């Protein structure tokens, strides 16, 4: 039996609901503390945790626990130029739908260039609304952490039966998607670990985000995709982001969708500086900054296609969406592809290759981000070091669903 067949298509209470609600981006100004904060390995392995634990910590420290928002837009009427029927132009643009040829991430070229290390398989953590685990287009793309449904914490990470990720909204081992956002984000990735931090009606809190970041770090995942933002910068959020840096995790974060510069109105966690955080804005099919996208010559590292893109949806088919939420996973997927070819790369190396590999097709884009360009998967792969054997692949953490699960994985 396929491992995913041991789980229902969705939670029983979610069967009759197809609702999806996306909140608007929220912003606030503050500065990032630079000193990393790391817990001991024994503390990390001690026990499971949930969003309520982080909520209590925030209360004790006198910190707010604000709502967080998905970095997506839902009202197409506000941007009528986005309503045209899309396709996969973001992967290969030859002018379809009025697009500009080559206004894409150079995916076909990248597929001809990559030299994956067959010993390497690792996952991308997706913080968001979960993923439709049985979507036919995502078969083989959901990472398997342990044996499902046996009531045992096989990998010793404190979470029982978290075979395919965790739901911090309902505090259970089923990170199924009821809004569609996370399922849409997942399609661009090679092997994903869904970490659900939004519940019914799109509700999420800073405490849920903190728990999700800590869980991804505990799993040792090298790339963390956060297609969500918060209004408020807090010491606790800075602490978890610093923890990610200490553990060698690259955070790829959406810049948000308020059509403003986050140099002046920071969006978190995208606005945190450092070599382990990369903020992503969105472009359209003509290589222009998307009308809704936030930007920042200092705060946003690069842009990626995010307008009129087609991807997987919770009805088992596909849907058209737009937002920096959907530009961000293209950057995460490129980081994963770089790791498959050069497993020794850390956050700083990944960030450097992603920024240096961009295409700079328009002067307008050069004023909107630190790199001045739009993601090019082929451009980043082209800049990989010639000697990729500087260190062996890291110890494997996960396998794709369908493979034999590893026992006793380090937390």
Account of the 3D structure:
The chain has 411 residues and is of the alpha/beta class. It has a single domain (20-29, 41-389), classed as Rossmann fold (3-Layer(aba) Sandwich). It has ten helices and 13 strands. It has helices at residues 41-44, 51-60, 107-113, 181-186, 206-219, 235-246, 324-341, 347-356, 363-366, 377-382; strands at residues 68-70, 124-128, 143-144, 166-167, 192-196, 223-226, 228-230, 250-254, 277-283, 302-305, 309-312, 318-321, 399-400. The strands form four sheets. A seven-stranded parallel beta sheet has the order 4-5-2-6-8-9-10, with helices on both faces. Helix 4 links the parallel strand 4 and strand 5. Helix 2 crosses helix 5. It is globular.
Descriptive labels:
single chain, Rossmann fold, two-stranded antiparallel ribbon, 13 strands, disordered N terminus
What is the strand and helix layout of this fold?
Layout: H1 41-44, H2 51-60, E1 68-70, H3 107-113, E2 124-128, E3 143-144, E4 166-167, H4 181-186, E5 192-196, H5 206-219, E6 223-226, E7 228-230, H6 235-246, E8 250-254, E9 277-283, E10 302-305, E11 309-312, E12 318-321, H7 324-341, H8 347-356, H9 363-366, H10 377-382, E13 399-400
Parallel strand pairs: 2-5, 2-6, 4-5, 6-8, 8-9, 9-10
Antiparallel strand pairs: 1-7, 3-13, 11-12
Helix pairs in contact: 2-5, 5-6
């Amino acid at each position: 039996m396929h491992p995913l067949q041991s789980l229902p298509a969705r939670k029983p209470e979610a069967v009759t609901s197809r609702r999806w609600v996306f909140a608007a981006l929220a912003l606030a100004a503050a500065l990032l503390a630079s000193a990393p904060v790391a817990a001991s390995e024994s503390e990390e392995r001690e026990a499971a945790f949930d969003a309520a634990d982080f909520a209590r910590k925030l209360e004790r420290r006198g910190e707010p626990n604000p709502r967080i928002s998905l970095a997506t837009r839902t009202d197409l009427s506000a941007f009528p130029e986005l309503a045209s029927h899309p396709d996969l132009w973001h992967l290969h643009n030859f002018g379809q739908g009025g697009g500009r040829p080559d206004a894409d991430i150079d995916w076909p070229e990248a597929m001809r260039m990559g030299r994956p290390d067959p010993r390497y398989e690792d996952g991308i953590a997706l913080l968001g609304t979960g993923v439709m685990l049985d979507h036919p287009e995502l078969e083989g793309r959901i990472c398997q952490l342990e044996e499902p449904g046996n009531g045992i914490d096989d990998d010793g990470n404190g979470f029982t039966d978290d075979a395919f990720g965790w739901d911090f909204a309902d505090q259970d081992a089923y990170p199924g998607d009821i809004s569609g956002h996370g399922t849409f984000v997942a399609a661009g990735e090679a092997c994903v670990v869904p970490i659900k931090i939004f519940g019914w009606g799109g509700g999420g809190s800073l405490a849920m985000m903190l728990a999700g970041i800590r869980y991804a770090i505990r799993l040792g995942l090298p790339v963390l995709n956060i297609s969500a933002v918060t209004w408020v910068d807090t010491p606790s959020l800075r602490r978890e982001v610093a923890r990610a840096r200490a553990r060698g995790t690259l955070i790829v974060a959406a810049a948000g969708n308020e059509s403003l510069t986050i140099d002046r109105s920071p969006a978190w966690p995208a606005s945190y500086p450092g070599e382990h955080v990369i903020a992503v804005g969105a472009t359209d099919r003509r290589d222009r900054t998307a009308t809704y996208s936030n930007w920042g010559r200092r705060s946003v590292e690069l842009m990626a296609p995010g307008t009129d893109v087609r991807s997987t949806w919770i009805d088992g088919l596909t849907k058209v969406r737009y937002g920096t939420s959907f530009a961000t996973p293209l950057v995460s997927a490129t980081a994963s592809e770089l790791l498959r070819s050069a497993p020794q790369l850390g956050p700083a190396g990944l960030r450097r290759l992603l920024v240096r590999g961009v295409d700079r097709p328009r002067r307008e884009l050069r004023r909107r981000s630190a790199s001045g360009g739009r993601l090019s998967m082929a451009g980043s792969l082209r800049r990989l070091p010639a000697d990729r054997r500087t260190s062996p692949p890291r110890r494997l953490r996960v396998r794709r669903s369908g493979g034999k699960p590893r026992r006793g994985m380090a937390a």
